[in-house]
Design brief:
Layout: H1 2-5, H2 14-37, H3 44-59, H4 68-80, H5 100-105, H6 117-128, H7 133-157, H8 166-169, H9 172-180, H10 185-202, H11 206-220, H12 230-236, H13 241-256, H14 266-276, H15 282-291, H16 294-318, H17 331-349, H18 359-368, H19 371-379, H20 387-393, H21 400-437
């Protein structure tokens, strides 16, 4: 990882990035395999200390694989100047002298910002710390380390070993996407994990459920993607679902009011994203080719995702609240495993799959890790292959083979994992039967 951090131009080092992160991912897979049989005695302090060192390698490097952070700083700088970031698109604004450099670096300046209100508050905080890329990345890395701590606390609450936190804390994906590129997604997942932890620890009380709802509102208004996990959290709220919904509505309202009435303009940007954006979406490109219609393909994938959410949550809802005899699996663990399954379905059906979108899945790996999830968190980085011709020639040219590999790699890994797991169970039963026969 240090070699990548020292790279003068990371966009030209994509083959090295893919290879080095593959080795790191193989280490995580081995850690999971070995840890399930002989638990590691790694302390929370060690886990977070190593996570910090990994992130420090990239903190002071420029954001090379994505330019989203310049929009973050532009929005945050405008808030500090008293300008609503939803009032107008950057292209329609003559920037002040101190923001001219940022203005020139913004992608898609013709659109009003697509980032929700909670994200805007984070951008303003980062801008207040100095308004530099490094300052904002340092702020987001601090939140990411807090997320690592929250994961450890939740693992302990769910009766799972704390060493599993390394599946996120030492994962190359958050290191590259948060410390390297400064993406805000980790902050949203920190609020999601906080909401889940509040429901597990204090969900039976009115205050705990309401605070969990407010935290989830924050998560969804940092990045909208966690909304797909809302039905699962609603199940976890159990008898305090009205209080959870109350906290959710109050939190969303409190975060949104400062940006009204211009906040309504985000709908135009979100609509353009939903209708037109596409990247590395194998299911989408396949359906579009089969139907000849991008719109029909998008609607079909939305239907598939909604069906997956309904199927997964209904299965959890029907499960008993107490562990089955001989099984340590509680309803709380079933819910977070459902979140993992829903996130996997979301990533495999979305028409646009940027590498940092998989941070949602990486956050849930400590609770429901399997071959498919670990492989997908690495495979999304194959899409950075597009950066090579874009940097050299200015041409954004996707590879159909890469798009297919990003989809098929986790699907294949998951299928092989099920086959091998089934064989082990059959062999174990056969061994027991042989022993009883003797």
């Amino acid at each position: 990882m240090q070699m990548l951090a020292r790279s003068a131009e990371l966009r030209l080092a994509v083959p090295s990035l893919v290879g080095i992160t593959a080795l790191a991912t193989a280490f995580l897979a081995f850690t999971l395999y070995r840890g399930e049989r002989h638990a590691f005695a790694w302390s929370p302090t060690l886990i977070i200390a190593v996570a910090l060192l990994l992130r420090l390698m990239f903190l002071f490097a420029p954001a090379q694989l994505s330019d989203d952070i310049y929009r973050y700083l532009w929005d945050g700088g405008n808030i500090l100047r008293g300008v609503n970031p939803y009032a107008a698109a950057p292209a329609a604004i003559t920037p002040p002298a101190q923001l001219k450099t940022l203005h020139a670096a913004i992608n898609h300046p013709e659109y009003v910002t697509i980032y929700p209100p909670a994200a805007q508050l984070l951008f303003a905080a980062g801008a207040a710390l100095g308004g530099t890329v490094t300052a904002l990345k340092a702020f987001l890395v601090l939140i990411d380390l807090m997320l690592c701590g929250l994961l450890i606390m939740l693992l302990q609450r769910l009766g799972l070993p704390t060493w599993r936190a390394v599946l996120y804390a030492w994962n190359p994906l958050p290191v590259l996407e948060i410390a390297g590129s400064g993406h805000v997604d980790g902050a949203g997942m920190a609020l999601f994990v906080a909401a889940f932890l509040l429901l597990v620890a204090n969900g039976k009380g009115r205050t705990g459920a309401a605070l969990a709802g407010a935290a989830f509102a924050g998560a969804a208004l940092v990045k909208l993607f966690p909304l797909v996990l809302g039905p699962a959290l609603f199940l976890l709220a159990s008898r305090r679902r009205l209080h959870f919904l109350g906290g959710l509505c109050c939190g969303a309202l409190a975060l949104s009011v400062p940006f009204l009435p211009d906040l309504a303009r985000i709908a135009d940007s979100l609509g353009a994203y939903a209708r037109n954006w596409e990247f590395a979406g194998f299911a989408f490109s396949t359906l579009r080719g089969a139907t000849g219609s991008g719109g029909l393909a998008r609607l079909a994938l939305v239907a598939v995702l909604l069906f997956c959410i309904a199927a997964v949550t209904s299965r959890v809802a029907r499960a008993p609240d107490t562990p089955d005899e001989g099984s340590p699996v509680t309803q709380q663990r079933r819910v977070i495993e459902a979140c993992y399954a829903i996130t996997m379905a979301f990533l495999l059906t979305t028409p646009t799959l940027q590498p940092w979108y998989a941070l949602m899945l990486a956050t849930l790996l400590p609770f429901a890790a399997g071959p498919a999830g670990i492989v997908l968190c690495w495979a999304v980085q194959l899409t950075y292959r597009v950066q090579i011709p874009y940097f050299i020639l200015g041409q954004w040219t996707e590879s159909a083979w890469v798009t297919a590999a990003v989809f098929l790699a986790p699907v294949t890994a998951g299928a092989l994992g099920r086959v091998l797991s089934g064989n082990r169970q059959v062999n174990a039963k056969h061994a027991v039967s042989s022993s009883d026969g003797r």
